[in-house]
Amino acid sequence: MSLNELQDVVYKLGMPKFAAKQIAAWLYTKQIYSIAEMSNISKVFREKLDEEYELGRRMPAKKLVSKDGTIKYLFPTQSGHFVETVYIPTAERATLCISSQVGCKMGCQFCMTGRQKFQAQLTAADILNQIYALPEFNQLTNIVFMGQGEPLDNLDNVLRVCEILTASYGLAWSPKRITVSTVGDLKGLRRFLNESQCNLAISLHFPTPAQRLEYMPAENAWPIRKVIELLKEYEFCNAELQWHEGAKQRRLSFEYIVFAGLNDSHRHRDAIVELLAGLDCRVNLIPFHTIPDSPFKAAPEQRMKEIRDYLTYKGVFSTLRASRGEDIMAACGLLTTKDYQNK
After folding, report:
1. CA distance to 28, 173, 302, per residue, from 57 (Å)
2. Which residues fall within 8 angstroms of residue 109, CB to CB, at 6 or more apart?
3. Per-residue pLDDT of the chain (343 residues; tens, 9 = 90+)
């Protein structure tokens, strides 16, 4: 619940008005597991809260640890489904990759979540639970909506979560610590850009409309060129200064999985440069992680470096994303809970 909703709760139960902020503090800044732990609220009101509400915290049902230190958690949802969440620690930061849906409607051919298809929306509580029930909660520095699902297809709940994470009554994070990824849902994208200051990542993968449509059905509904036109209406911070603390605007990035012989040619490099001309952005080049019964193959690392150097030389700042958690099926494109549903 937002602070306004918590104020409605305390009014309904006849509690002091200031109790709303006390409850918010217990919910969003302290690691509590029950309403009974809200020690600065009277026992009578704790019992009233406990009668009508639940904390919403559900602990992970399963944990897998990669040889590189990445951890994948399986979380139950309020509707009886399951989602996967990935904790990625490095020397400089600790990033949590969270899910927004069970499965996904977008149908990208190279993604395990897309193969699972759509099964359920996550509530705001389901999304927040992936964060607050995380054993490593206190180590977190960044959150990315890059797990299962299309975040802008569940926009109300994603925006609610972003509000709580950045609000003074919540986690009070800078929006720059949160990144939301999308294939480019145009209606949701405009609303997200107007109502949030969190960073944005666009799943590009193919720079030409015809080829993108072949492998990403969402291109039919939301053409990438229309997505680019919309993005040019907004300001983003300079790509080469993206990680500078003084940068005021949100960051814009494009995700590009590099497939051998499919989207790694000079023609594709030039198409990326042409498509993104005039945008302050970066391109994250991502290695393809093999999925069962897939015709796709990963491009060699040397080819990815060549693409990175070429794009950067042409003025499109580019980086290579390190592969993490592939041995536990936690890397980009590998998340699926198909086998856990309805059990």
Report:
1. 11, 20, 45
2. 215, 216, 296
3. 999 999 999 999 999 999 999 999 999 998 899 999 999 999 999 999 999 999 989 999 999 999 999 999 999 999 999 999 999 999 999 999 999 999 999 999 999 999 999 999 999 999 999 999 999 999 999 999 999 999 999 999 999 999 999 999 999 999 999 999 999 999 999 999 999 999 999 999 999 999 999 999 999 999 999 999 999 999 998 766 554 555 558 999 999 999 999 999 999 999 999 999 999 999 999 999 998 888 999 999 999 999 999 999 999 999 999 999 999 999 999 999 988 865 4
Pairing outcome for strands 71-76 and 62-65: antiparallel
Structure tokens at 71: 């951890």
Angle at 331 between CA 197 and CA 154, to 5 degrees: 40
Nearest to 146 by CA among 186, 111, 179, 184: 179
The length of the chain is: 343
Q: Are 284 and 319 in contact (CB under 8 A)?
A: yes
Residue 301: what residue type?
A: E
Contact by Cβ (8 Å): 224, 204: yes
Residues assigned a catalytic role: 84, 332
Q: What is the Cα–Cα distance from 72 to 97, expressed in whole angstroms? A: 9
Helix (H) or strand (E) run with residue 272 in it: helix 266-276
Written as one string, the DSSP assignment of 288-322 is ----TT----BPPHHHHHHHHHHHHHTT--EEEPP
Q: Is the pTM of this model over 0.85?
A: yes
Phi/psi at 308 (nearest 5 deg)? Answer: -55, -50
Q: What one-character-per-residue DSSP string does 101-124 give?
A: EES-SS--TT-HHHHH---EEPPH
Q: Across 33-132, where does the E strand assignment appear?
A: 62-65, 71-76, 82-89, 94-97, 101-102, 120-121
